[in-house]
Amino acid sequence: MFLLVVRAEAQQKEKYTVAIFLYNGVELLDFAGPGEVFSASGFRVYTVSVDGNEILSQGFVTVKPQHSVDNAPKPDIVVFPGGGADAPSKDARVINWLKSNVATGTMAMSVCTGAAILARAGLLEGYNVTTFHNYIDGLQALLPNSKVLRDTRFVDNGVVVTTAGVSAGIDGALHLVSRIKGLEAAKETARYMEYDKWKPEEGRVDYKNETIEKLKTGALDKENKAPKASIGPSSVPYEGELINLASDMVMNGQYSQAQKVLEASIKWYPNSAASYRELARVYTKLGKDAPPDGEHFVKLVEDGKADEAMALYDKTQKAFSGWILFDGNYMNMIGYHVMAKGNYDYAIKIFQLNAKAFPKSANAFDSLAEGYMRGGHKKEAIANYQKSLEIDPSNHNAKDMLAKLQ
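Above: the chain sequence. Below: its structure as C-alpha cells.
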C-alpha cells in the first residue's frame, strides 16, 4: 500500500490526501501541475467531479474522475483549477461539498479562475487573494471586501490558498508541500520536476501560526507548560513549519533555539525523520554527540547492505533510544522497487527493518505481509496482515488479502 487539517491528531497521519476537482473546460495544467507536485511529494492524490462522469479538458483531453462529490473520500486539501469555472461556481452541489469539507478541517486551494468557486462559497471574504491576470477585475467584482493582488504567484491565508494562472498552481502546491513537510522536501520535488522557476518569495503569506510566533520569541518557554497542555489543537504547527523555523534559526546561529523547536516538533510528530535529521545536525553544531547520518543509512539499504543497516539501526537505538533514522514511506518505496525486480528476500529484509522502526504503522506491516506473500511465505503473510489490521481495523487491503489467503 503505498489544507489544512487543523486538528493535531489529524496532522500526524502517514499520508495526506489531495482531491482535485474537475469539470468540463478545466485548464489542463491547472490541475496536472499541482497533481504532479503533490503526487511526487508523497501525498495521495485523487480526482473528483460533481457526478463522477467523464469531463473534457481544453477540448482535447478526456478524463474519467475517480469519484463524485457524493462518494469522494474526505481530503486534507482540495484543489479547484481554473478554466470554465463559472458553471461549477454556481452549482449548489459543488459549493455545499466544498463548504462541508472546509468546515471539518480541509484546506482549499484555487488555481487561476478556480478562485470563483472559493469566492462563491464565501471562503475569500476580507482576504488578500490572487487569480489569473485576465480575471483580476472579475474576481474583484465578486469580492468587494477583499483585495485581489496582481503580480503575485500565490497568497496563503491559512485555510485558503489562491494562486495566479496556469503554471502558478505549481508554485502554490510547492508552497503547501514546504509548509506541511518542509522546504527541503519542496525543493526535492521541484528538482525532480526540473521546475527551476519556483521562487517562494514571489508568493505572499498572510497566515501566521500562533505557536510558531511564540517559538520565534521564546514566549512558549516562558509559559512553562508542556506543548500539548498549553496549545489548543488548532494552533499546532505543521511539521514543515517547525522544520523551516529551525532551519532559519540555524542560519542565524541560534542553535539552542533551533534545538528547542525541533524537540517540540518531535513531540508532535514522533515519526518525523526530517525533524530528527535536523536535530542531529543541530547537536553537531552544539558539540553534542549525534546519531549517524540518515542519508548514509538509507544508502546502505539502497546498496544492498540491509544487514549492515540493521546492525547500525540497533547500535543507534542503544545510544539514542527511539531515534528515527529514516522516513518510513521512503523506505517502503525502496522495498517496493526491489520487490518489483523480483528480489523478494531482500524486499522482505527492507520491510522488516521498516516494521521494526515503526511498530505502530499499519502500512509497514501491510507491506511486510505483501513481501512475504509474493515470496511464497503464506503463514508469515497472514500473520503480518493480521498485525496490520490490529493497528488499523479500517485497512481494507489487509481484510481483502486475508480473505484470499485464508
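The longest helix spans residues 168-181.
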